[in-house]
Automatic annotation (TrEMBL):
Entry protein name: Glutathione S-transferase
Stored PROSITE patterns: GST_CTER, GST_NTER
Residue ranges occupied by any GST C-terminal domain in the UniProt entry: 86-208
Every GST N-terminal domain range: 1-81
Length: 208
């Protein structure tokens, strides 16, 4: 059985929620990123990327990146597929995950690191301070675009709950950055919030 190295934050939450949705029992080891444990020599030896989450497979291979971990789990445990049941569905899920990552999550994360969270991240990452405000604005504009794409559909991929829903929910629940005027996305968010996997994947440090 693989071991998931997890932490507070939306990416690790994505994997925990994915695991809960599939009903898997995966060993988990908590890493305190606030204390910089992910930057220790031991952790860097395991994962030179220094980020969480990552997964140690049974053969010793280290798999990083939350979406890659989820795809691995979906293929390894194909019951209740969350990527899709055929090539078209899996491609659709990847399309939306990439859009959410590049258009919404990454601009907001980089913008926040270089502004509101600058003191915490300044010695950990290269930060582009001059573009922080614009990056956060870009993320919000792309949420408006996503609102239009979602329409009255129940899920990001239409009638099918998928990794794309888990990824976006984990990000928005962590950042509390969903404007109230985006009514379709708020409807979607409230519906996802009622799923048992949400409570099951919540980080212990977060008070419900």
């Amino acid at each position: 059985m693989p071991t998931l190295y997890s932490a507070v934050g939306p990416s690790a939450r994505t994997v925990r929620m994915f695991i809960a949705e599939k009903g898997l029992k995966i060993d988990q080891q908590e890493v305190n990123v606030l204390a910089g444990e992910n930057l220790s020599d031991e952790m860097i030896k395991l994962n030179p990327g220094k980020q969480l989450p990552f997964m140690a497979l049974d053969d010793g291979f280290i798999l990083a990146e939350s979406l890659a971990i989820c795809e691995y789990l979906d293929e390894s445990y194909p019951e209740q597929p969350l990527m899709g049941s055929n090539a078209k569905e899996r491609a659709e899920t990847r399309m939306w995950c990439r859009r959410i990552d590049l258009r919404i999550m990454e601009p907001a994360i980089q913008g926040t690191k270089a502004s509101d969270a600058y003191e915490f991240f300044k010695d950990r990452y290269f930060l582009v301070v001059s573009g922080a405000k614009e990056l956060k604005t870009l993320s919000q504009k792309n949420l408006v675009w996503l609102e239009q794409q979602l329409g009255n559909k129940p899920y990001i991929c239409g009638q099918r709950f998928s990794l794309a829903d888990i990824q976006l929910f984990s990000f928005l629940d962590f950042t509390k950055s969903l404007p109230k005027e985006l009514t379709q996305l708020n409807r979607w968010f409230d519906a996802i919030s009622a799923r048992p996997s949400v409570a099951a994947s919540q980080h212990p440090s977060v008070k419900v």
